[in-house]
Every structure is written in C-alpha cells, then in structure tokens.
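Forwarding these from the shared drive since the link keeps breaking.
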Amino acid sequence: MHHPRSPLPLLLPLALLPLASAATPAASTAPASQPALQLTGAILDPHGKPAANYRVALHANPPLPKPLDALSDAAGRFTLSAPPGDYQLTCVPDGARSPIAIIDHLLIKPNAPPQPLAISFAAAFSITGKVRLSDGSPAAGWTVRATFLSPDGALELDTDAQTAPDGSYSLAGPYKNVSFVDVISSPQPDPAKNLTAPAADINFKLLSEQEEMKRVR
C-alpha cells in the first residue's frame, strides 16, 4: 500500500551515474596528519533550489578513525573539516543508507585555501500530464507527487510539483522506474502505478464529493 511521504529533493549528479550503495574507495592516499582544512559547499536540487537535510560524508582507505560528515541546512549549505587526502564523498538523505550521489575521488591538497564545493544535480527522467477538476476545467495549484524507485528497489525518492494555471505538471527524477504518481487531494483520485519514465499524458481528474461517495460504497 502506498503511504504518502514527505517530499525529498531528487538528486542525480551531473556527469555521474546514480549508485545504490556506497562503494569502498579505491586505494588512495590516506589523510595526512596535518591541520584540517575547511570544505564548504551547497547542495542544489534540479531546479537550483537548496536541498536541506542531506548528509555529506568523506570516506578514506584505510577508514578514518572518526566520521567526517555534515548535514546540509535549510539553505543547502554544509561545512566539513578534513585533513589533506584523497577521499570519496557521498551524499545521502538523512536517515537513509543508500547514497544519492558518489564522488569517487575528491582530493584535498595540503595548504589549500578553503574552496566552496558546489554539488549541483540534474534529473534524468520525467513524468508530465494534466490535472482537471471534476467539471473538466484545469486544476491549478494542486500538488502532484511521483515516487521514483532505484533499480535494486533499495531506495525510493519522492518529488512534488504544483500544477500550472492550465493544470499541467512536470516531475523529474533520477530513475526510470516510477512506483506511483498521485495528486495530493481529498478526495484523492486513483494513482497511476508502475510507470516507466519518461512518460507523458499521465492525467488525473479530481473527484467531486458525490463521486467519492459512490466510489467508497
């Protein structure tokens, strides 16, 4: 059964493929015993808006004695302090296990000045359609939500969009498998299920109270 979840920004790194689980960093230069350097950055969603509550972490081989990670704030910003070395960087929704993005090699050089790291993301697959009211007129300002599913089924990502004045919407995500597309409304029309993105003309008609009463009888 599909349970609505809080929407998450959908992230797919530019020039990188999404990975379902963190890979062990390749043999790399272990972080040196030198003063830590500050690494700052910002995480942006596909529309260029800040992505909050994503955990950015650095991994090394051999493993670090203690975690080096930070949570992005409401502005998508994060700050990490790390000694010079060759790291793997992962970006994970807070509380999840499977990373949305992996940068296999992030080299922090000795005596390097603080440099901002912009992690910008783009979505690969889209769902489009229109929402209409029960009388057939466009439904403007309604929320449509899609649930994108990773190939191994280990990760689900929700993204929301508001319908335009003509009732149209466009949703984008990093995976081609889409479990559900539904309109957040009451009464709620039946969701579209098990789609393969990209997909167009995924349309909905909102139910009147009378239609909803007939449906539940």
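-- next protein --
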Amino acid sequence: AQSLVPLARSWNFPPPLELSANARAAGWQNKGYDKYQRAYILRNVSATPESPVPAPVVPPAASPVPLRSVEFTLQATAQSPLHNVCVVLENFEWKWATGTFHIFVNDVPFTAAQIGVIRDISENTTILFLPLRGTKGTVVKILDSK
C-alpha cells in the first residue's frame, strides 16, 4: 500500500506545469490538469484547423526553442510528486514518418516515452506518456530538429 501513495498523490495533487516563455510566445497554452484524463492539457493555438503545422510566428530574439516545439517544467515536490506523466498536445501532430521530434528530460535525451496520435476531421492531437517519477522540478522539451 505504501508504494501507491506517490501515485495517489500525483493524481490528487498533480505538480504544477509551467510553460516556458518561448513556448507561450510560440502559441502554446496551458489548459491545466484534467483529473478525469489524469493528464496535462496543452493547446497549440498558433496552428489553424486546416493545418496542424503552426502558423509562422516570430520568436523572441535568440530563442532556443524552435516554433514547432514545446518546453515546460513540472514543479514536483514530495506532496505533489511525478508519477507516470501524461500530456495531451491539442492541435499538434507528432510526425512519425520524418522522425524529426526529440524529447529531452532535464536536457537528457528521453527515449522511454510512448506516443499516440488522434486524427480528427478538425485537428490532430498527440498524447505523450512519460514514465517519470520524482519529487524535484523536471524540465521537458519536445524539440523539432528541422
């Protein structure tokens, strides 16, 4: 039963997710944590429904985050731990064929993620499952290498 405590805490008291300034400038919006999905919801508002590729947005000078990328920090603590994180990226499609996207956790390549895409008539949604555990702030970057 003790091993279930971090899982229960992560669901009942999820760590706050903070989008980077560059991600916000590139058109990402944090819609919060959905307890029913047990997932963080991020929306790409810079893309149009006709094309899931973000519209051209001029990034801040010397922006290290490309426009088709998103960076956020999960502010985990002992009271709000990370335990198997799910992130829903609305209006964003992971490009399987090109393989140009890479995930980094605390600046280390992360290959344990599971990724799914929901294609809809109006927009595409990517779902990321990140098997992460911890009680410290964690920076997640999803970068487009193109």
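DSSP finds two helices and twelve strands in the chain. Helices lie at 5-12, 21-25.

- D.
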